[in-house]
Amino acid sequence: MAHAMWHSRWAVVWAVTLSLLGGCQRHDLMALTADAATEGNVAKSIEHSEAEWQAKLSPEQYRVCRGKGTEWPFQNAYWNHHGDGVYHCVACGEALFDSKTKFDSGTGWPSFWSPIGRGAVAEGDDKSIAEHPRTELTCCKCGSHLGHVFDDGPRDQTGLRYCVNSTALSFRNRAKAAARPER
Ligand SMILES: [Zn+2]
Fold this sequence. Notes:
By secondary structure, this protein is α+β, with helices and mostly antiparallel strands. It folds into two domains: 2-38, no CATH class; 50-179, Metal Binding Protein, Guanine Nucleotide Exchange Factor, Chain A, CATH 2.170.150. Helices cover 25% and strands 22% of the residues. It contains five helices and nine strands. Strand 3 and strand 4 (111-112) form a beta hairpin. The model is unreliable at 12-21 and 26-42 (pLDDT under 50). The structure holds zinc ion. Zinc ion binds next to loops.
């Protein structure tokens, strides 16, 4: 009896912790059991050591994705890219943004008014600039830094602007992806 109560209490703690992480609810939290949580099945997360990330990513990708860096505006791959497809996390391959939600923000960075789905990206406080606190975006699956979200996006959509570094993204054309489905 006491054992069961301990489990259910941890299920609640996990659910609250995950909801506080800001959006990584890829699964129905209420359906989670404490056993699933303790076995690490809450969300399919990818973890690498810093040395492994450095080996996997280019120096620029590592600087942006793992070091929370920012690339130059108007001098990146996707700010003016209009292909039809899906933008994936360059570090882990997770689908993050659909080109259907991309818009020209005039900022010089690829901008979207929505992530591809609930649970694709997480939001957190970024107080690195004291007088200008921002909301940081990270990939839910691997935790890589993507960019920031602001509330000056298109009013006829969500009103949000997901401002993302091209360096953190890898575009996959929709027609090509359909012809050669991923395994
Ligand atoms: Zn990722």
